[in-house]
Amino acid sequence: MENFNPDLEERMKKTAKKVKQAALTAAGIGAALILGTGSFYNIEEQEQAVLTTFGVAASVTEPGLHFKIPLIQRVQKVNTTIQGFALGYDQADNASRVEDSLMITNDYNFVNVDFFIEYKVSDPVKAVYASQDPVLILKNISKSCVRTVIGSYDVDSVLTTGKNEIQATIRTMIVEKLEQHDIGLQVVNVTIQDSEPPTMEVMEAFKAVETAKQGKETAINNANKYRNEKLPGAEAEIDRIMQEAQAQKTQRINEANGEVARFNAMYEEYVKNPQVTKQRMFYEAMEDVLPRLKVIIDGTGQVDTVLPLESFTGAGSQQVQSSAGAAGSVGGAGSAGSLQPPSAAGSAGAAGTGSAVSDVAGGN
């Protein structure tokens, strides 16, 4: 038979009460800690948050400390900085991944092309809930667009001159497909990191072609430089020649106008007295012509023969002059007439040569 001990029972009740109080206190402290720490969250400068309340998501874009209802609202943070991934090589060790880099061009040549795709989150809610893995979707879209665009260009464009155009075309195509999928991501830039032929022999051949193209560009630049150096001088020479020609034209026109005016003035005087003017012109012509001629007047009644005697006979000037003087001194004998103006020659019937000379002069 057990003995009843009221003191022991009282102590047990007190102990149970203390344990219950301690448990309640611990539970309260734990709940307070949970509620306190779960009620606030912080957003960094380059982050955005997706706040979900009973399944309804909303974006929080302002950085800083924010409040949420514990156990009801849930927060997912999204990095909004520009990120990127590689296609065709491994970023860790730069090792080539042939399954992504080897492509065929429009002219049926194989090339290894490495790309780097840069993107950022444009809509945090869609980036979290629109798809399970939006980055994987972007990678698949990028691979498809890259192969499509590379397949529409020839190998020279892919390796050398068409890189900028290819990058822009790929970016435009990726943006269009991302708009269709609407996964909350935005492509920032597409860059060709490297493009080369798949074998060393082909690579050397393309390097030689590229060297030749650079030589061509250098030659063209040198030619343009030479042209730019010579062209101003040539244009100046053209201007000088044109000015000289214009000056000569003006001079010739002025001289011609002067000759016309002189002739018109002479003609006006000639019309007033034709015979006197004709005689004066004859004398002036003879004064200009005779000093330079050596002539013989044979007086045969035929047209006088005027010869450059020295070129045919080889005789000295004194002999020719004496012969001409002797022929001219027989003026009144009828064997040789003297030179006369048309009026005088017309009255000298006995002088045959004078008549001939006067006839020629009168005809003029």
Task: Break the fold down into its secondary structure elements and pairings.
Blueprint: H1 6-38, E1 40-43, E2 47-53, E3 56-60, E4 64-67, E5 73-79, E6 83-87, H2 98-101, E7 102-104, E8 110-121, H3 124-129, H4 134-150, H5 155-161, H6 163-181, E9 185-196, H7 200-272, H8 274-289, H9 309-313, H10 317-329, H11 342-347, H12 352-363
Antiparallel strand pairs: 1-4, 2-3, 2-5, 6-8, 7-8, 8-9
Count of DSSP H/I helices: 12
Query: Which spans have pLDDT < 50 for at least 5 consecutive residues?
Result: 312-364
Calculate the terminal CA-CA distance, rounded to whole Å. Answer: 189 Å
Q: Look at the helices and sheets and give the structural class.
A: alpha+beta
Number of domains: 4
The average pLDDT is 77
SSE string, helices as H and strands as E: HEEEEEEHEEHHHHEHHHHHH
Number of DSSP strand runs: 9
User: What is the CATH T-level topology of the largest domain?
Assistant: Tetrahydropterin Synthase, Chain A
